[in-house]
Specification:
Blueprint (H helix, E strand, L loop, with lengths): L6 E4 L3 H12 L4 E4 L11 E2 L1 H8 L17 E2 L5 E2 L3 H9 L7 E3 L2 E6 L2 E4 L4 H6 L5 H16 L18 H8 L3 H11 L13 H17 L4 E4 L5 H12 L3 E3 L6 E5 L2 E7 L2 E4 L2 E4 L8 E14 L12 E5 L10 E7 L10 E8 L5 H4 L1 H4 L5 E14 L8 E3 L10 H15 L11 H10 L1
Parallel strand pairs: 1-2, 1-14, 2-10, 7-16, 14-20
Antiparallel strand pairs: 3-4, 5-9, 6-9, 7-8, 11-12, 12-13, 15-18, 15-19, 16-17, 17-18
Length: about 450
């Protein structure tokens, strides 16, 4: 402890671990501490004993659930977009060598009381019950427009400028039905609620393109997921940091952040103080520097089998758009199983989450729970979503944002890039990965 570090990182959540990895590669001397005795902070994956310790006051897990070691249950469910920023960060830092990924088998959306698959191919789109024949034609025109649109080429604009035109105008232009708009905005662009309709369309176009290009990468669904749960991600970055000389201390309590003349100079744990010139932490380590912006409810459900109406797939994402259940925010369901090494072979795992809107959050996730079939056991957590009050440049204490209710890591990566810029003064530049053809050529030439 009693040393001088460039940066002290507190909390081993994914955001903090990515930053400690990136800064270690750049030659910074990093100390990384966590008050828990496991990696991952809020984004950890727990075994059965840890799960029961956290949610059931340390009750012993029921024997029928199987072996402790077969479980790696995510506290916060999120999937990776195959073409998204997190995959770019993983390949840029080479953390991919510590992890194995498996594809999520399907993406589904709830519509008019039924579960429908988000089409992954032209053939599926033609057969999809989500739209009637004429609506399919209109939607096809819309998607062709999105794919050919170039901001710098007005001949592709059809008289609209996406940097200014609100998204609802674009939908109107193509005459799309409310159900189709729900599906595009929530199942493809993955907006949590409808405020995007009045914002410039470019943001939504970029999100749709990310979904499509991620889908094109491996087919089936745009999502990837690490074997043994999301807790593997922070550990991968922690390993990277350690290779470059980063020091890790788990189960280490933090008593105070020490300041001199309004700037951070160290962190005290008991009677030891580690010195540093910068601190990075999650909101729980600096509660006076963050404020609550919302609450999220997450229900971890253990099931006996795959959920009904999903073709018995071993993993899925299911989105219930808010309009379908008279809410302001979507409900997300993430489903994974033994094929991802996160539960034993006789069980499935589904996590239902949404932003809390009322005084009865349990009631709010009911529409999601109702789709799961028989639930063997469930663990419910309601958490505050916090954001930093200041950007940290004054006192050099940089606070990350809590994990939101989105079902993917794009917002986490935005926070990483934003923090990186404030901490270092530079933009985070990620090296582009070779395409599969280039990779094959490269391998053939060796």
């Amino acid at each position: 402890m009693d040393e001088q570090y460039d940066v002290i990182v507190m909390g081993t959540g994914l955001t903090e671990c990515i930053l400690s990895g990136l800064l270690s590669i750049e030659g910074k001397k990093v100390l990384h501490m966590d008050r828990n005795d496991y990696y991952g902070g809020d984004s950890a994956s727990l075994n059965l004993t840890q799960l029961f310790k956290k949610f059931r006051n340390g009750e012993a897990p029921v024997e029928s659930l199987g072996k402790d070691r077969d479980y790696n249950v995510d506290l916060i469910p999120k999937f990776m977009m195959a073409n998204g920023e997190l995959v770019k960060i993983l390949t840029h830092t080479d953390v991919t060598r510590y992890l194995e990924f498996k594809q999520i088998a399907g993406s589904y959306v709830y519509r008019d009381g039924k579960i429908a698959k988000v089409p992954a191919t032209e053939m599926e789109a033609v057969r999809s019950p989500l739209m009637g024949l004429f609506e399919k034609r209109r939607a096809k025109k819309f998607f062709e427009y999105v794919q050919t649109y170039r901001q710098d080429d007005t001949s592709t604009h059809q008289g609209m400028d996406m940097a200014i035109t609100p998204m609802e105008e674009v939908y109107k232009h193509f005459g799309l039905e409310p159900g189709t708009i729900d599906f595009i905005g929530h199942a493809l662009a993955l907006h949590l609620e409808d405020s995007y309709l009045s914002r410039p369309a470019l943001e939504t176009f970029e999100r749709i393109t990310l979904y499509m290009s991620s889908m094109a990468r491996w087919g089936k669904s745009p999502y990837l997921y690490p074997l043994y749960g999301l807790g593997e991600l922070p550990q991968g970055f922690a390993r990277l940091s350690a290779i470059y000389g980063g020091t890790y201390m788990l189960d280490k309590k933090v008593d105070e952040i020490v300041y001199e003349n309004g700037k951070v100079v160290g962190v005290r744990s008991g009677d030891e103080t580690a010195k540093c010139s910068q601190v990075i932490c999650d909101p729980s380590y600096a509660p006076d520097k963050a404020h609550k912006v919302a609450r999220v409810i997450r229900a971890i459900c253990l099931l006996k089998g795959p959920i009904p109406n999903t073709e018995n797939v071993d993993s899925f994402q299911l989105i219930i758009p808010q309009n379908q259940v008279n809410r302001q925010n979507d409900i997300y369901i993430a489903g994974v199983s033994a094929s991802h090494n996160v539960c034993d072979k006789d069980h499935y795992l589904a996590i239902v989450s949404t932003i809390v809107e009322t005084d009865n959050p349990q009631e709010e996730i009911q529409p999601g729970l109702a789709l799961l079939g028989p639930i063997v056991d469930k663990f419910v957590q309601i958490a505050d979503i916090c954001e930093p009050i200041h950007d940290g440049t004054k006192d050099q204490v940089f606070v990350s944002k809590s994990y939101d209710a989105t079902s993917h890591f794009e917002t986490v990566c935005d926070d990483v890039k934003d923090l990186y810029k404030r901490i270092t003064g530079n933009d985070l530049v990620l090296k582009q990965r070779l395409t599969q053809e280039e990779e094959q050529k490269e391998m053939a030439s060796h």
